[in-house]
Amino acid sequence: MAAERKTKLSKNLLRMKFMQRGLDSETKKQLEEEEKKIISEEHWYLDLPELKEKESFIIEEQSFLLCEDLLYGRMSFRGFNPEVEKLMLQMNTKNKAEEVEEQTVELDVSDEEMARRYETLVGTIGKKFAKKRDRAIYEEDENGDIKPVKAKKMFLKPQD
Amino acid sequence: MAEAAGVPAESLAGCRARAARTVLDQVVLPGEELLLPDQEDGDGPGGAGERPLRLNAAARSRGRVVCGPGLRRCGDRLLVTKCGRLRHKEPGSGSGGGVYWVDSQQKRYVPVKGDHVIGIVTAKSGDIFKVDVGGSEPASLSYLAFEGATKRNRPNVQVGDLIYGQFVVANKDMEPEMVCIDSCGRANGMGVIGQDGLLFKVTLGLIRKLLAPDCEILQEVGKLYPLEIVFGMNGRIWVKAKTIQQTLILANILEACEHMTADQRKQIFSRLAES
């Protein structure tokens, strides 16, 4: 009796993860697509023609700071408040400095030299802290460069 | 008189929009429409009212034009909303198409984000202070918005203190909020303004005139005697000098210099320098 009548499982049950492990990849893809279709059909959308966004060239601002270069609001004259005088110099030159282009900072050591030093540094320091087994990884090439580290063998989780 | 007044009104209503370039530094009235420079291509004596916006290379290379206070965007044109002189600033670093604004005069301040203002603390409620900045609503100032303030270490602010701060939120839909630190967390001169001194109110236009980079008034004032001034964009100025008399003289000068010519000012300063 039981063999004659196939138990009809519900769609939700079939969609569950443990039921899908036995399916092929093709049927899985089909099911996914169907699901996506259902979801996207349920999403509401406006049935209007596509409106082109008008690119506006005009921006509205209500602040006077953009319009006029105003000085900093706190001022002190003839040494009445030395902190404020220091602030005055700082803030007013900050405004002017933004207009002047930035100058490149002079470096003591060039970038290329830094890169070269780091390349060799990583290897030598790494060797110091590597365990005996790993020290074999740091074999030196003919040129004296350190070979790249090989991938360690780790525990791989078995796939379903 | 009625006839003479009627004729100019008619002509204004009937005239087309003018090019902004031609009206620079002239008085404009609310309701006027201004054309931006690259929209005058088809403008001639027989030009029609509607000009389609051509998205050619010329239009795109214009970049963004900023319309500042006193102007509003109206389609592709600028609509004047305040009466005053039209000003223009060229773009400095090449981005955008410059700034247009109307230089108007008013006494009532409307909070604007980023403005540094002087406020008077009117109430302390819980974690915030209510600060009167001269706008329609008192601004709120959190006690954590001071340099070095933590929950345990509260700033020493009492009702009636003067605060120099800037707005972080200021629009017509919400209550304005101000802080006394900048985005990096440093005070930069903001916070409670010290003891003594005198606070008085002037028009907003005078503040901008005094804070202009090449202001002669301040340079001359600075030579008189040691003093300290704080300008708030809401029309409030706080001054302090060594004696009460000097402070009062300073306050009177600053209030009066709005309506004086340069000669009158120089006369007054020379008289003061003698005494």
TrEMBL record, chain A:
GO terms for biological process: maturation of 5.8S rRNA. GO terms for cellular component: cytosol; nuclear exosome (RNase complex); nucleolus; nucleoplasm. This is M-phase phosphoprotein 6.
